[in-house]
Protein 1
Amino acid sequence: MGRASHALKQVLDTYGISQNQLAGAMGVERGSVSRWYHDKRDPTAETVVEIVEALKSLNFQAAEKFVRLYLVDKLEEKTPS
């Protein structure tokens, strides 16, 4: 599973945000969110920013968690020496 899909799925499920709610907040069709959620398509970098902004409008903690799962946790992983 891709990082974006994993992060989005975990955040929406944890915070009880529906794909419809996120799609509405982003001004995109639900099918787009579904494709990201089900790892059928990766969102562009610009779309990831839009996901964060939409999540902030729905639940600030969900936005923070998405960023942490998508970016920060990857940075904190140990790299082999």
Protein 2
Amino acid sequence: MKFEDFDIDETLLESISYMGFNDATPVQEKTIPSILEGKDLITCAQTGTGKTAAFMIPILHSLMKSQGEGIKALVLVPTRELAIQIDQVIQGFAYFMPVESLAVYGGGSGEDWGAQKNAIVRGSDIIVATPGKLISHLNMGYVDFSKLEYLVLDEADRMLDIGFLDDILKIVSHLPKKRQTLMFSATMPSNIKYLAKEVLTNPMEVTISLSKPAEGVLQAAYLIYENDKVALTCSLIADKPEYKSILIFGSTKKKVSEVYRALKKKNMNVQAISSDLQQSEREEVLLDFRSRKTRVLVATDVLSRGIDIKDINLIINFDVPNDAEDYVHRIGRTARAETTGVALTFVNEDDMYKLAKIEKLIDKKVPKVPLPDEIKKGPEWNPKQIYRPRSGRVGGGGNRRPHNNRRK
């Protein structure tokens, strides 16, 4: 289905074409007509399916006909990175349109706060905000939502995971009751259903490929001892010069730092990103990676959702995610918009049961591939065996012998 089939504004269509979009994705096909009809919507779709365009294109189309000044649309997101990304997408779509957008998030300077305040008071057409920072502005008394027509909750499940439920409900209490509300979530736990009941009115429900990786992702796993993971990382990257964009996920800031230092010693073009960086530093690192000035980016899960970086060739899960859903979000960074990509996961003896949970969720076995010749033999595949460190906590890794107790 082509975007012109939606009967949207010609100026907006010109911007869409200029950005290189031609065919609508399934989530866009199923949601854009309903949004244009003014229906509330709750959409369950995985990352990388085109959700941002699904809600922004019909909103921008409607704003072209909207009269008067003031904040017309509010998009709530879980992270500053996603706020920046969506704001950039809006600016691209609205390039030929008299529509102003603003990203509101924390971690900036006093000048950033002042710029946000001025744009809010002036009545920027679209506000993209993290709940906590928007609450800070609301508490100052100068935020006017009386003209608001649209509320979008993007990555709603992630916002609730972080603990933003009360903030979201407080923000909603400041909004007009007559509005169109759109909720997008990758999963549908009970707290999402509760939030939907509180903020949506007779919503239409759309589900697209729930918890399934994109078809273009080639998945594989290495069974490996923890102490060999860094060596395998270096080997894989050195062996794939044709991969120009590589993203590595570590479970902790310590792991990220360890991998970064090892690759830097090999004179590889690598940067690392975690919550330790200032916001301006994080934006600079992401910009370098997005523009391919940086070939390898090592990151914590701050990047696993909502960051739209195109044409990532390889994802490496240095650790198996604790949550099976997070695996889908991590590998969703590659093979976006019907492209192809490779996702490799390192599985030590402690994490085999996690990979088994992932396989159950995605309803597919992840192939276990042989280690390179320079890496010694790894552990045997045994997802029912739980290995326990001396502390009694499941996790960690390393070359330990298994405990005989099994999880029932």
Protein 3
Amino acid sequence: MAPARLEPKSGLSFKIYQRHHSSSRSTQMIEIAISEDDLGKVKSEILNPDEERCAVLLASSISKKSGLVRLIVQNIEIPQQGDYQEKGPCGVTLRPSFVANVVKKAKISSQSVIFVHSHVAPKPPLFSIVDDGGEVHLRTFLEKRIPGQYHAALVISTGGLRARQLGTKTEARVISLGHRREILFDPCAEVGPTDGFEENIYDRQVRAFGELGQRAIQDLCIGIVGLGGTGSLVAQQLVHLGVHNFILIDPDSLEISNLNRIPNASNKDVGKSKVSIAKAYIRKINKFSKVAAILGDVTKAKIARHLLETDFIFSCTDSHGSRAVIQQIVYQYFIPCIDMGTVISAKKGRVAHIYGRVQLLSPGLACFTCSGLLNYDEVRQDMMTQFERKADPYFRGARVPAPAVISLNGSVSSIAVTMFLGVVAGFPVEARYVLQNMMNSSARPVTAKPDPACFICSRSGAMGRGDQWRLMARQD
């Protein structure tokens, strides 16, 4: 490989000379998902007032049914001083040996490559003519070395960032995920009203978190797993907030014992699926809403994969197996989730404890495993088929239904939805893990520390791996 060459105009030069320069890869709408922590690291390493610098991101990729290709940043490669051929305030060049080494790592892992460089000027950056030319050669090189993958380029300054599919003019959306879900760059951002946006309907909440916050809510596809006591209330609140794209998952039908805590359900709905009842309510409030009602168990991989089409998940299930699958999706595919639960315990015939818990799962935050909230014996049992349960000498039998009261469910659901507004709409709500004690009417934020070696939420585990790892779910 011949050395890369510095061009006279500002930009990142990656001109790599080889025999073949044709490019057959079609352009595609791309979304880059990066954790808050990784974005912060990139900024701290390459933003410099005196010279342009570089980073290279390695990402797994998934293709959504909408046609969107999502690049999930898993690793960062920061060049050292000796990895630069030249750098200055108007341009930067990496040594071909560094580029070749990074591309080799990506090829071994079948990953996409995202080339990042900084601009010195504090204004929002634009790709330069030099960037255009260098990327064309890079794109051709990568198509030969890593066929079948989409790659991207990202330019960043103190004034913002911009991204595109490598070697094209097709711009890419950039999203950071962690304590917040923030869209950092969106070439498709609407200037006019979005579908279903009615100022008169949402005027009071727009006054609370602004029109941008309202649009952020309406642009999301929300997954709700479990449409019972808490899930039905979450669906009710979200549709009133303006969410109009849902994927609902639940395997159960309404029983008469559910009627005390599922709003908008009546005796005539007994026997109907819970997802169909929730769907009917959502469509009643917003006839333009899009609702996929999935009658199935999320512990099955084919059901769980429906969640890959979502932007945000609410986990409203009481199953340890369901939570285990959902948390893997969160960290493996960078889809944040708010999980909630309630506990009413009795001692000697009297209520002893009434607790609620609401927790955000997102890159950089502790998962259930780190928080000590999963019972893996119960996870194992939840993953069993009926035949396996009968054959297992350690299976304890059907679980006794837990006590449930709609007021407690309502309180926990409201905390969860309000937390959601803090995560996606900029509402000034900072807590990401809340414990509620209804006995003394208190709610307090708590923290859980991620385990750097966790097999779910760490970089050595499922974090950012996309389809590289199979879901630990039933494959039937």
Protein 4
Amino acid sequence: MLAPKKQKHRKVFRGRSDTKGVATRGCQVSFGTYGLKAQSAGEISSRQIEAARRTMTRYIKRGGKIWITIFPHKPLTKKAAEVPMGSGKGAPDHFVAVVRPGTVLFEMEGVDAKTAKTAMVLASHKLSIKCKFINTLEK
């Protein structure tokens, strides 16, 4: 699973304002031919990213090339089970990628459009946000 090698801060503020608005960067398909674009805001965990990647890779039978254009930089904390309220913030538990509407999450190349669309739709079922398939060849 994806996780940063180094962090400036071990714990970060929860921050609900970082999902407001639409994406201005990372909203174009820049590496491949097909893409999976976010239509809603949210946080995607590193486990969800890995599950989606494995689904796409297995469906295209390792035929094409896949790019993951998001990375889980933000650590989320969790308190241990049955711990009373208070006594500070919990320990870092997992990492998430903050996604705004319009962000391209995955890109693909080297397969036909029908296969790419099916693979991306299967991958979108693994994610916690709404997504749509985009094709740069159709203009």
